[in-house]
Structure formats: structure tokens, C-alpha cells
Amino acid sequence: MFNTALIFNPSAGTSKRFSVPVVQELASQNLQSLPERYIRSEKERPNAFPPHHSDIPIIDMDILLKDSDLRRRKELEKLGIACQQWGIFQAVNHGIPLSLLNRMKGIMREFIQLPLEEKLKYKMQEIEGYGQAFVTSDDQILDWADIIALTTLPPENRKMDSWPRKPEDFRETVDQYAVEIQKLDNTVLSLLSEVVGLKPDCFINMFGKMSQTMRMNYYPPCPRPDLVLGISPHSDATGLTVLLQDDETVGLHISNDDKWVPVQPIPGALVINIGDMLEVISNGIYKSIEHRAVTNMDRDRISIATFCAPSMKTEVGPAPELIDELHPCQYRRFIRAEYMQNFFSGKLEGKKIDFAKIKS
Ligand code: OGA
Ligand code: NI
Fold first, then answer.
1. CA 159 to chain centre
2. 152 lies in a domain?
3. Domain that holds residue 350
4. Which atom of ligand 1 is nearest to the CA of 215?
């Protein structure tokens, strides 16, 4: 009942392998006490600070795409504020069929229910496949989750050995969903360019050839949700992240004003957050947001995060149009692979963009 976790060094192309439990198997054992490796220090525990309830902004994509008047201007302003002050919003009326969203969650749930032996056919190699990521030592505290990580776009970058063949429509569904999310990412990136007065394709062009990856998370029920985290606090290494989550189970928390705010799922909506690359490209106007996931005692939870980012070879830096005397350059330029090296070299922990920050 062990699976592998890999830590990967993208520039050297090497990886180191660790053995980690399959959390789903642990969770099915009616444990009397939780294994040490999952127990967080007191200050990291979900209830260390009482959750702060607040509504994160909801953006109606239909208004942004179809309206042409005042209503659109207002919604665009709302989107700008959401991405500057919160770094996250819930997109409704985004145009992706509900049937596809439900099937995406369905294929993950059906995969999880397969016999372990079948699932381990896809066990993680170079951070793709079924297992765990960001494990860098044998004694590190682990997340209460099993994941499937995949490179989804461009299609030529897919490592098909890591793509499950069961359920039967797994590959086809991921393929369809990947294309839909890429369209949505392009729409949001062009709207966010527009908000800061740039040509709509400005951010998209700065991303160069876009790369899309997916992290399908399975958070089994946990007998002591007060002691563990489903995913450690982090910001995403991406431009944008689109999160599809279970309709009824709260798990995602975002950091806002030094408080953890639970994100209440809205059926049919997609949660979109800013990642580190967009923070850099926008010269800090849009904020990549720290977030984490917690678990529940009597229910499991599925979420699917789709990340879009510049390709590994792209040079990333603030848009020159967004730098002036009042807005000095906040980040030095770097190749994305350099950032990823830094991102994957340690455990998942906080924001990892400081290495490029220009100190004033
Ligand atoms: C992620 C992530 C949050 C969640 O996969 O990067 O932040 O709610 N997931 O599963
Ligand atoms: Ni994340």
C-alpha cells in the first residue's frame, strides 16, 4: 500500500524517489490514531486560527463576453479588483458544459475506486501520474491526499504512460476539458490585459507557447481533520489556475489579510486564481494568492486544478508597459525553468517567487 513520490529537478532532468503511503488506504483502515507523518505543528493546524467568513468575488463571464455597455464595464472593474485585492474569483456562466465538468469529477472518482493494483500502473514518474508530489525527505510532514498529475497541453508534451486507461473515457474527457480550460484561460488573460490598459493579447503573447498541467486531488475522509492538511499552504507556480471542485464539500481555504477564508463551492462555477507567473508579468498588480486545503471527517473531496503557464523556455518578466517611475520594476527577468527548479526543489510551502523579487 505504498506509492512513490518524486522530487524532480527539471533543469538536471533528475529525480529522487520516496516511498509514501496511499492515503486512501490509510483512511480505509479505521485508524485509532493518526500516523505521525501527517500531524501538523500546532500553528499549521486547520483550527489554529478561527476561519474568517467572507465572500470571494463572483464574476459573470457571460456579461464580460456578450454585453458591450455599462454592465460590461462594471463587471470588468469587478474582475480587476478581484484579481488585485483577492487574487481569486469564482467564474459563473463560463460556457463550459456542466456535463463535462461533472464527467471530469466522475472520471477521477471512478479511477479512485479502482483496485490499487490497477492504479499503481500509473504511479508517479517525474512528477506525472498517480502518487504524491513535493516530498523531499523521509521525515517531512505529508499532505492527506492522493493525486494524479498530468501534462495536458500542448498535446506533444503528454506522457501517455501516466494517463489512466480506466475508466474508459478518462483520456478523452481530460482531452476535451483541457481544450475548454485553455479557451477560458485565454479569455481571462485577455480581460486582465484590458483591465490594466494593455492590448488584449499582451499577456497571452508574454506567455509564449503555453503549457498546461493538471493536478487531480483526492482527499479521503480523515479521522482527525483538526490535525492534518489536505494540501500545504502554497501559491501556484502558474499564470492562472482553474479549480473544479465538489459541489457540497468545503476544503479550499485562501489567505486574505492574514486570515484563512474558506471558499464556499458554487455548483457549476469554476474557481480561478492568479499564480506567481501572472504576478510577475503584471509587475505585482495581480496577486498570486496563498491557499491550502483541509479535510473532512466523514466525507471525501475531489478537486481538479488546471494550471496554465509559460513554457519552460520562456523568459518571464514584468510587462515593460507596466513599469514607470511610480511603478518601479518589482521582479528581475528569469527563464521559467529556473523558477520551476526553485519551486520543485523544496516542499510545498508558501510563495516561492522571492528569488526574483527586486529589493527596494
Ligand atoms: C492545488 C490546490 C486546492 C484544492 O492543487 O494546487 O491548491 O482545493 N488545490 O484542492
Ligand atoms: Ni494550488
1. 20
2. yes
3. 40-355
4. 5
Amino acid found at 311: S
Confidence of residue 278 (pLDDT cuts 50, 70, 90): very high
Residue 162 and residue 221: Cα distance in Å, rounded?
25
Q: In terms of Cα–Cα distance, which of 351, 60, 293 is closest to 187? A: 60
| Whether residue 8 has pLDDT greater than 60 | no
> Does 8 reside within a domain?
no
Reported as a single tens digit per residue, the pLDDT across 291-328 is: 999 999 999 999 999 999 998 899 999 999 999 999 99
User: Which residues have a Cβ under 8 Å from the Cβ of 217 and sit 6 or more positions away?
Assistant: 145, 147, 230, 231, 293, 301, 302, 303, 304, 305
Phi, psi of 131, deg, nearest 5: 160, -130
The whole-angstrom separation of Cα 62 and Cα 75 is 10
**Domain membership flag for residue 309:** yes
SS3 53: coil
Looking at the structure of the chain, the number of domains it has is 1
Residue 306 alpha carbon to ligand 1 centre in Å: 9
Radius of gyration in angstroms for the set of CA atoms belonging to the chain, rounded to a whole number: 20
Q: Which of 277, 303, 349, 352 to mutate to test the pocket of ligand 1 (most atoms within 8 A of CB)?
A: 303
Rounded to a whole number of angstroms, the distance between the first and last alpha carbons of the chain is: 50
Residue 352 CB–ligand 1 contact under 6 Å: no
Output the pTM of the full model.
0.94
pLDDT of residue 337: 86
The CATH number of whichever domain residue 219 belongs to comes to 2.60.120.330
Classify residue 232: in a domain, yes or no: yes
Distances (CA, A) of 272 to 42, 255, 288: 30, 15, 11
Q: For ligand 1, say whether the CB of 291 is within 6 Å of any of its atoms.
A: yes
**What's the pLDDT score for residue 68?**
79
- 20: pLDDT strictly greater than 90: no
